[in-house]
Amino acid sequence: MELDIEEYIANSHHYRGWVINEFATLEKQIEAFILKDLQVMNLCGYEMQTVILDRLTFEAKRQSFKKLLEDKYLRSGFVKTNKKTFPFKPLIIELNLLNDLRNMFAHYPLNDNYRNLNKDTVISLTRYRDQYDHINFSGEEMDKIVERIQKAIIDIDSYNGELSIKKFDNLPF
Fold first, then answer.
1. What pLDDT is stored for residue 166 in this prediction?
2. What backbone phi and psi angles, to 5 degrees, belong to 134?
3. pLDDT on residue 95
4. What kind and span of H or E run contains 21?
5. How many whole angstroms separate alpha carbon 24 and alpha carbon 30?
6. What are the Cα distances from residue 168, in Å, to 53, 72, 89, 159, 163?
7. pLDDT at res. 67
8. pLDDT recorded at residue 124
9. Cα–Cα distance list, 16 to 81, 86, 116 (Å)
């Protein structure tokens, strides 16, 4: 069966738009956490959003989120040691990995060379930096990326609110 390149391109645009929209939602969730944690909504929420947050990179927001969580845990009595790390460390690692994917979808051009596609490919991106290659994604892989983003959004929201030392009693360390 011959690949219909125009249909592939249209579908690729759909998938790219879908995943970029999910990343935008993730970024807004981090911003919402920052605004709520700093308790600036009533004082200067609009200015904080439009003057500062809208000008920060995703990475800067991720680092700010991490610092706010560290401070929140330390104020609540958590003691970090060599063997005992912050419980949110896996989320921070996941946000870093997701940022790499976000950058690929935002900056890598679409591969429209049908010879580099396989039958399961719904979108293929062309990497030019450091090496030239094509990164193919199947529909199943796209679903998993979106699931990871949506889980991260839920996980970020779970850190809203106050912490108490009692929450640390169940931690596996």
1. 47
2. -115, 135
3. 97
4. helix 5-38
5. 10
6. 31, 13, 15, 13, 9
7. 94
8. 93
9. 41, 34, 18
| Alpha carbon distances (Å) from 59 to 55, 74, 76, 132, 163 | 12, 23, 26, 25, 25
CA proximity to 157, closest of 55, 19, 48, 31: 31
Q: Please count the CA atoms within 13 angstroms of the CA of 74 that sit on its side-chain side.
A: 8
Answer yes or no: are the C-beta atoms of 76 and 164 closer than 8 Å: yes
DSSP 8-class letter at 79? -
102: closest CA among 26, 23, 28? 23
Element holding 169 (H helix, E strand): none
How many other C-beta atoms can be found within 10 angstroms of the C-beta atom of residue 122?
19
C-beta separation of 88 from 69 below 8 A: yes
Amino acid at 97: L
Q: How far apart are CA 162 and CA 72, in angstroms?
A: 8
Residues of the chain with pLDDT under 50: 1, 165-166, 168-169, 172-173
Buried b (16+ CB within 10 A) or exposed e, 41-66: eeeeeeebbeebbeebebeebbebbb
How deeply is 78 buried, as exposed, middle or buried, from its count of CB atoms within 10 A (0-12, 13-18, 19+)? middle
pTM summary value:
0.85
